[in-house]
Specification:
There is one protein chain. The chain has 10 helices and 11 strands. The protein has 287 residues and is an alpha/beta fold. Helix 6 links the parallel strand 6 and strand 7. Helix 1 runs parallel beside helix 2. The N and C termini lie far apart (54 Å). The protein binds iron/sulfur cluster. The site of iron/sulfur cluster (SF4) has 15 residues, from helix 8 and helix 9.
């Protein structure tokens, strides 16, 4: 019997619309069950991106059509220079903070509104929460995390932000049911949400087989088609593959690869979701 050789598909960057900045690779105050980050035991890791690296990335992408800069992590708001980096990015384009929401209280929401008002661009929030049932959510993300997110939504909406909930479908439930229940809860706390405020992603399963990806590639839109992530170590294809040699695209945006071979089980998560997992579909909000 002949052995078949699997050749992974190649994805080419169509347009650099999304710049992800990995503010910290491993620093987070939560330990969610489904997180794709391989955390060290200690929560006191200080692996923050330097302001110089951020400035260089912004400078090297001046001619790129950036639509949004995403501050990601682990938890981006643990960065000691978070406010300065946020201001820097807001001088360039819209910024989305991808956070577990634990650092957003009323004072912070008011401050962030002032920062947004200094800019001509928009400040957006993606808040991580995984279930509309408090117990089920806290089982994944840790006790108290559900309430923290709902408090953050209240404070952010009070200051006219329009936060998006980023939901990982850990329990493999009906997306429609998840969406309806989240909208109902948000409406109950006084935030007038619709389905654009709920972004549901299927859970990354490390046991997925990357070969499954091949046949359906043409039906999906992936983050690596429209973005790149910069970390302290270089440029990578997407947040899943940040600091992973399989996703490496170069050391800086001055000279980076626009092609990436889709060879990891993470790529199957993108197939499953059939759309970008990390970035926002702005056309939804413009319609
Ligand atoms: S994980 Fe998804 S976004 Fe990242 S390289 Fe694979 S297909 Fe592209």
């Amino acid at each position: 019997m002949k052995a078949t050789i699997f050749q992974s598909p190649v994805c080419e960057l169509k347009s650099l619309n999304n710049l992800f900045i990995e503010m910290t690779a491993k620093n987070c105050n939560q330990r969610c069950k489904h997180c794709f980050i391989d955390f060290p035991l200690s929560k006191k890791v200080k692996d923050f991106i330097s302001q110089d690296t951020v400035k260089k990335a912004l400078n090297d992408t001046l001619t790129e059509p950036l639509q949004c800069i995403y501050l990601t992590g682990a938890e981006p708001m643990t960065h000691p220079d978070f406010n300065s980096i946020l201001r820097l990015c807001l001088k360039r384009t819209n910024v989305c903070i991808c956070t577990n929401a634990t650092f957003i209280n009323e004072k912070k929401a008011r401050f962030l509104k002032r920062v947004e008002d200094e800019s001509r661009y928009e400040l957006i929030f993606k808040l991580s929460i995984d279930h509309y049932d408090e117990l089920k959510n806290d089982e994944i993300r840790g006790r108290g995390s559900y309430r923290q997110v709902l408090h953050a939504v209240k404070y952010l909406s009070k200051y006219d932000f329009n936060p998006i909930l980023s939901v990982t479908n850990y329990y493999n439930e009906s997306s429609k049911v998840l969406e309806e229940n989240f909208i109902s809860i948000l409406n109950k706390i006084g935030f007038n949400a619709d389905k654009r405020n709920i972004c549901i992603n299927e859970w990354y399963n490390p046991n997925n087989n990357p070969e499954d990806f091949n046949s359906s590639l043409q039906h999906v839109s992936t983050d690596c088609e429209y973005g790149r992530i910069v970390s302290e170590k270089g440029i990578y294809a997407c947040p899943f593959l940040s600091n992973d040699h399989r996703g490496r695209c170069g050391s800086s945006f001055a000279d980076y690869s626009r092609k990436i071979s889709l060879e990891t089980p993470y790529c199957n998560t993108c197939l499953k979701n059939k759309r970008q997992v990390f970035s926002i579909n702005f056309s939804d909000f413009n319609s």
